[in-house]
Design brief:
A hairpin with a 4-residue loop joins strand 12 (about 565-570) and strand 13 (about 575-580). The protein is α+β, with helices and mostly antiparallel strands and about 775 residues long. It starts with a helix and ends with a strand.
Length: about 775
Amino acid sequence: MIKKAVALLIIIGGIYWSFLALLPQNISSLDEVNQNFSTQRALVHLKEISKKPHFLGSDVHLDVRNYIETQLQKLGLETQIQEAYSIRDWGNLAKPKNIVARIKGRENGKALLLLTHYDSNPHSSIGASDAGSGVVTILEGVRAFLSKNEMPKNDIIILISDAEELGLNGADIFVNHHEWAKNVGLVLNFEARGSGGPSIMLVETNQGNAGLIEGFVKANPQYPVGNSLFYSIYKMLPNDTDLTRFREDADIDGFNFAFVDDHFDYHTAMDTYERLDIKTLEHQGSYLMPMLKYFSEANLSALKSNEDFVYFNVPVLKMVKYPFSWIIPMVILAFIVFIGLLIYGGRARVFKRADVGKGFFAFVVSLIVSAVVGLYAWPALKFIYPQYGEILQGFSCNGHTYIAAFTCLSLAICFFVYSKTHKPGNAASLLIAPLFFWLGISVAVAFVLEGASFLTVPLFFGLLSLFILIRKRKPSIISHAILALPVLLLLANFVQMFPVGLGLKMMVSSMVLVVLIFGLLIPVFSTFKHKKRWSYGFLLATVCFLISAHVNSGFSPENPKPNSLCYILDADENKAVWATYDNVLDTWTIPFLGEHPMAATTIKDYTIASKYGTSFTYATEAPVKSLKAPQMVIGHDTIIGEFRHVELCITPQRKANRIEVFSDSTNVFNAAKLNGVAIRDNEKIGLVFNKRKTNRLFSYYISDEDPLDIQLVLPKEQKTTFVIYETSFNLLEDEGFDVPKRADDMIPKPFVLNDAVILKKSITIE
């Protein structure tokens, strides 16, 4: 009994340690020596720049830019503001204003660039974490670095970019137009996709990652978090950062340092100074200082490599790495060892066919049941709690409780199924099935997802457990618990990270992973005689967590409901509607949309979709308000050969923030310039805007009250109609609409056009 208790404590301790090692536990104070990073000093800056939303074109945006520029100047740096129009893959035209400075190095090699952005996401995000945290990390890190009064070997360029949230526009103009860009050898980018949790290191490179990972290991940050699987997943997701522009446009490598926990705050009015986890900010600083020290002195021209490393973090060892060339030999070795152990155990008559069969049955049933439950967990929760559908990022404030609940449920399933297999001394037979599946996974990732090949490492420890079980009929349960530590230290935190980073729809990954980990713990758990009791205990824990989640499933000031309301005036037909993106209306939206609103069928084709594919759901007739329509003037209009060259100038007559331009997707455009920027998406075949699947051409985010100048080349016979949606984000401030403020338990819905006064007007070029 004592040995079982010790083994259980080792397992629990391993799980706890896997999480504890991810973040610093002590916060640097205001009294920290000048040469060191101080989180408390960084927070002083954050409080100043995260008071209100500061998206491009807003009044507060200018205040934040001035504050950052002043702080850099106080450090003795000469700053410059780089501005130019930009439009890239997202189809958003903007005029970013980057803040740029440089610390001169003593040699003329490649420069190290520190990168983050200072704009918040339109229109309601406060932007404390995304990416105010990055701004203050760099401000405090540079201050600490300069206080040493040591000239670095390499130039250090500081780029606080603008319009990252709109389409990486600030990074675009720096990479493609700033004279310093051609000398950049490495980028350190600080980002956020939540308001807490560990900061994950992600490599950005077009070549192999070996040089970067070797440099990262030599820099020796105290709390490294990252692995080659995360970057493989990151590359599959539509989550570009400014660093993407450096990699794609200029083949400049870099590191992203981004945290993703508390995902429910992402791009919302809850992304505030108060909700940022200060341990997370400490973690960002713990990355920057050693990286700055090492790479400011390193040969940045030597980082390029054609070789890739598999890499992963574990406590004590920090970052473990080995070349891709080891992947296949390791899998072959694991296969040989597995077959050898099967032969060895068979000759020693340790394995019983019936028990091996029971082991496969138990493991497969546990895996399938957990996978099915995990797959339908989030859809079922959204059915039971329709309000969760309003959380577009797919992670509710009680999301961690759901992760705990379904983790316990997966364990309950495993213990219940394996309770049917208990027999003294059959652990070796039961372990064959998990090892077979782990071997299959190792083979699959070796050919399909090489970055995940570190999953072979726990397999070897599982094979060692099998060897011990064959050699000793009654081995020490404590030794097997110790051999289980690698899988726990490496993968236990993944159970939480996947649904946190990718949304609760990924609960299936957590539940499947729990079964896979449980499989390697068979040498320990097989000795537990009363598995049904453990199953009932975990089932009870599941119920308790679900009750807790239910109690916290409603909305409150700490957990507010996202909702939306827009006013749309059709100036062509002199009609207006109230419109929403919400599926569940509430006390704030019902007075405008009614108890039984009509579906928004007539405006779906012109919906400004979010990254999650959201469109207007309901629309109700609204009173027609007197709004000044934008002035739309057709200027230059000439036919040359088979083409018509035309210029259209759109000038808002009110305080507008954004202009959306639509035209039927069948229309052909041979060339286009927007405020002097040429569209280049498919100019090789003489067409632009031809890759779109909807009627949307582009969006223009207005700053400095600049008009929108459109120059087009069209087929001369084509009749082209443009539908213009001019938007201002002042629905609640405009006294002409009498829209009350939201209740304390509500916030503007992120990722969609919201709190907007929208004027629709069309113009046709015959």
